[in-house]
Amino acid sequence: MEITFTREAKEFRNQIMAVEGAEKLMHCYQCGTCTSDCPIAKRVPEFRPRRIARLAMYGQKERLFEGDLLYLCAGCYTCYEHCPQEVHVSEIVSALRKKALDEGHLLPGFKALMQSVAEMGYIYEIDEFENEMREDDGLPPAPEPDTDGIEAIMAATGFLDKVEASRR
Amino acid sequence: MKYAFFVGCTTLSRLPGYEKSARKVAEKLGVELLDMPGSGCCGTTYLETLDHKTALAMAARNIAIAEEMGLDIVTICNGCTEVLTKTNKELKENPKLKAEVNKVLANAGKEFKGTVEVKHFVFMLRDDVGLDAIKEKMEHRFTGLKVGSHYGCHMLKPAEVMETEDPENPTVMDDLVAATGAEPIEYPNKLECCAGPVMGVRENVTWSVGLDKVKTVKKYGDVLATACPFCYLTFERCQLMQEDESPNLPVVHLPQLLGLALGLDGEEVGLTHNHVDAMGILEKME
Fold first, then answer.
1. Between 20 and 30 A from B276 (CA), which of A12, A30, B64, B286?
2. Does the global pTM surpass 0.80?
3. B202, A44: Cβ pair inside 8 Å?
4. Prediction ipTM score
């Protein structure tokens, strides 16, 4: 893997490490424990947590932001628990997703999901139809989320604007 | 015993069998589960990876509702459990962050105080109700039913946040299975993730993970038991996606097994909602 380590790349690495949970990136000595235990890496050849850590150490933004790479992590925390250096690659992936969103990148499926939550207060629509089905099962109506409050929270942090402005 | 009941979007809209059986089991054991007015999405485990403060505020809004009720929260989704537990812990331990999040929360007219706990249904049963008390109430016993439990990730991990059981050697689900008379089994890769969270990214990866587990459990046991809506959907759907009918392994929500042993009937625990026919387990009861 050929890597060019420019000043911009170093700056990007520092930005990643400034995100909470990603501070120990440089402790990674590339042992590969994360990758051998990863349920996704077992099935997806291009998803290698060790490689993600390596690319992050050298600030290789374009390669990291390519395609759906960052969104293939299931967040199972296996690498988090097993990392002998407490680098926690899952947290490096999270930090990278945050940086990607800051720069306008978000997978369309994630964008739609977050917009659903802001709009409906749930990830799915739970309305009259669903409540009728629930009633047939003897279940009480689903709680009615305070959608105005939820949208206000997501807007107040600037998150909703970032989601709406994002492209793949 | 009384709790604020946080059901979670997926179960509320897709899995009446899970919600029904959990509610009925609680009732049978004298546990009151109260609905949380105004509650909504926990924020999702995805949101945590996209924006820290928004994720905290979304979860804290729900926790604040339970605080207003003066009750600890019981959850039945691993994702919600992790999101709510992590937020609760982080905000209780960090007053500065709590103040920042409360400023955001004020937009929804809520305040996080830090006065309640969050626990998954299975831990509530084992640790608050107690295995002995549960066994005393059993009206039936399963005999010769081998059950493979799937714990999933977020009821246990990250261990330093969840503080429940050793994620390499959990026993809570197996303990509850054993209380019904059924035989809890060990099987290879028992602790592997269901990969449900990448279903929307690359579906085929999730089905591959799901099928591997289903086939393994089929080899060693009769039924797969889950305690999370995403895990359940993965193991059920990966089978329904197959063109032939193999491997045809029943997947049940753990409270369904408990409910049947507590004397509820198949209808009451919502067994007709299981898309891989699970009625066969009724024949293994005495």
1. B286
2. yes
3. yes
4. 0.97
| 3-class SS shares of chain B: helix, strand, coil, % to 5 | 55, 10, 35
Q: Mark whether B163 and B53 lie in a shared domain.
A: no
Q: How confident is the model over B171-210, as pLDDT tens digits?
A: 999 999 999 999 999 999 999 999 999 999 999 999 999 9
Cβ–Cβ of A157/B7 closer than 8 Å?
no
Check whether residue B64 and residue B145 sit in a common domain. no
Domains of chain A, first to last: 7-102 (1.10.1060.10), 108-165 (no CATH)
* Site from A70, A88, A154, A162 to mutate, B interface, most B CB atoms within 10 angstroms: A154
Contact B158 A77 (CB under 8 A): yes
Question: How many Cα atoms occupy the beta-carbon half-sphere of B189 within 13 Å?
Answer: 17
Chain A nearest-CA distance from B73, in A, is 15
Indicate whether B77 and B139 sit together in one domain: no
| 3-class SS letters over B113-137 | CCCCCEEEHHHHHHHHHHHHHHHHH
Between helix B52-69 and helix B95-105 the angle, nearest 10°, is: 80
In a domain, B277, yes or no: yes
Note whether B195 and A74 are within 8 A (CB).
Answer: yes
Please report whether residue B267 resides in a domain.
yes
Report how far residue A50's alpha carbon sits from residue B285's, in angstroms, rounded to the nearest whole number.
48
Q: Are A117 and B35 a contacting pair at CB < 8 A?
A: no
For residues B52 and B61, give the distance between their C-alpha atoms in angstroms, rounded to a whole number: 14
Neighbours of A130 (CB within 10 A): 18
CATH number for the domain spanning B70: value is 1.20.1050.140
Q: Which domain holds residue B98?
A: 2-120
Residues of A in contact with B208 (CB under 8 A): 43
| Beta-bridge partners for B120 | B75
